[in-house]
């Protein structure tokens, strides 16, 4: 037990319960939900596993020190005192991300700079030389979080945001973030036990995340690197053991995953990304107008999509959303249809009553994830009056 330590998984607003559930399933201890984060306890192997397997985490931080500060000089002094040479050498590089929620400290960039100065000055005073800053691939990436007068210093074990899964070579104008896609799927209850469809699939993100959930494939298997691989205590053998154990938990999938898009370039991009993710055997993408389509077969269908918001495409929104409702009602019996939108006005034109509404954010845009249950046969009329 002595090897266990506290970690913090950062996530997006609204996904805290989903992430907590993921952590519980992975075997984390002492799970506590916060705002846009969930804290938990595990060992080094679990830190590796969390980075590989969590679908709704953006970063996994390993807290190092917390202290009170009342001025920028205070911050400098406290950071300078810490034994940074235990974690990096003078020839290594560092990067610092800072977030501040404080009346005393208002500029995150200045906090990053002050922290960097303290660390490099310590090295210069001790060794006569100083490490460099490398914003892209540093040996050590630190996270400084200041809340009022409390400063939390953490090691960032992930590096680049975990939404960068490593399978995207091509994206559309406004691609959906991979963590957002996975979170929407998990919130919608997608478990791989039915057919799945994204009728406006863009570059294929939702389809890929849906297939990875269905087959229990670790989402970050295709990533080139995690930050912890540059740490002094990096244990490659342990990482390979963890990787092998999670790969053994993959499962078979016996249903269909299908994507439509009207744009030929989107269809090509989606197919490329699906190939990069090694998921071509599970996902089919076609150029097809959803509004001219019909449900195939009698089986239950789970649908999730991200329709255009009118932010980037010139679309007659009331007409567009009315067509979504009409198509679902007339052509997709036996379907649970979910979609996310930030065009809260346009929802009124769908003409169906959502059975669930969940508040989320897509980037800075307040959005709603909506569920429409389309029933088979006579139930349909009864439930949608």
Automatic annotation (TrEMBL):
One of its GO terms (molecular function) is methyltransferase activity. It holds the Pfam family THUMP. CDD domains: THUMP_AdoMetMT. GO terms for biological process: methylation. The keyword RNA-binding applies. SUPFAM superfamilies: S-adenosyl-L-methionine-dependent methyltransferases. It comes from the Bacteria. Keywords: Methyltransferase, RNA-binding, Transferase. SMART domains: THUMP. Residues 46-157 form the THUMP domain. InterPro entries: RlmKL-like_Mtase (IPR000241), RlmKL-like_Mtase_CS (IPR053943), RlmL_1st (IPR054170), SAM-dependent_MTases_sf (IPR029063), THUMP_dom (IPR004114). PANTHER family: RIBOSOMAL RNA LARGE SUBUNIT METHYLTRANSFERASE K/L (PTHR47313), RIBOSOMAL RNA LARGE SUBUNIT METHYLTRANSFERASE K_L (PTHR47313:SF1). This is Class I SAM-dependent RNA methyltransferase.
């Amino acid at each position: 037990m002595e090897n266990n330590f506290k970690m913090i998984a950062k996530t997006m607003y609204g996904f805290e319960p989903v992430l907590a559930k993921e952590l519980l399933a992975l075997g984390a201890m002492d799970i506590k939900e916060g705002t846009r984060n969930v804290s938990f306890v595990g060992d080094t192997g679990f830190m590796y596993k969390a980075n590989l397997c969590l679908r709704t985490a953006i970063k996994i931080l390993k807290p190092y020190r917390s202290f009170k500060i009342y001025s920028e000089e205070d911050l400098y002094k406290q950071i300078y005192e810490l034994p940074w040479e235990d974690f990096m050498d003078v020839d290594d590089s560092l990067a610092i991300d800072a977030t501040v929620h404080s009346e005393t400290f208002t500029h995150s960039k200045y906090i990053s700079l002050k922290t960097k100065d303290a660390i490099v000055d310590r090295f210069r005073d001790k060794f006569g030389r100083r490490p460099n800053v490398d914003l892209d691939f540093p040996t050590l990436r630190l996270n400084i979080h200041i809340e009022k007068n409390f400063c939390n210093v953490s090691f960032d074990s992930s590096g680049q945001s975990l939404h960068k899964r490593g399978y995207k070579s091509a994206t559309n104008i406004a691609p959906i973030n991979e963590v957002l896609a996975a979170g929407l799927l998990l919130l919608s209850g997608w478990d791989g036990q039915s057919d799945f469809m994204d009728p406006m699939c863009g570059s294929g993100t939702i389809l890929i995340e849906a297939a990875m959930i269905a087959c229990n494939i670790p989402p970050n298997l295709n990533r080139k690197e995690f930050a912890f691989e540059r740490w002094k205590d990096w244990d490659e053998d342990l990482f390979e053991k963890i990787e092998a154990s999670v790969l053994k938990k993959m499962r078979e999938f016996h249903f269909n995953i299908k994507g439509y898009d009207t744009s030929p370039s989107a269809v090509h991009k989606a197919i490329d990304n699906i190939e990069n993710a090694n998921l071509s055997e599970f996902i089919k993408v076609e150029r097809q107008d959803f509004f001219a389509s019909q449900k195939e077969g009698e089986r239950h269908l789970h649908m999730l999509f991200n329709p255009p918001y009118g932010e980037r495409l010139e679309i007659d929104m009331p007409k567009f959303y009315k067509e979504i409702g009409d198509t679902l009602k007339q052509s997709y019996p036996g379907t649970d249809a979910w979609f996310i939108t930030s065009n809260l006005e346009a929802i009124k034109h769908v003409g169906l009553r959502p059975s669930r509404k969940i508040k989320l954010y897509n980037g800075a845009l307040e959005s709603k994830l909506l569920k429409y249950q389309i029933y088979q046969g006579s139930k349909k009329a009864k439930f949608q009056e």
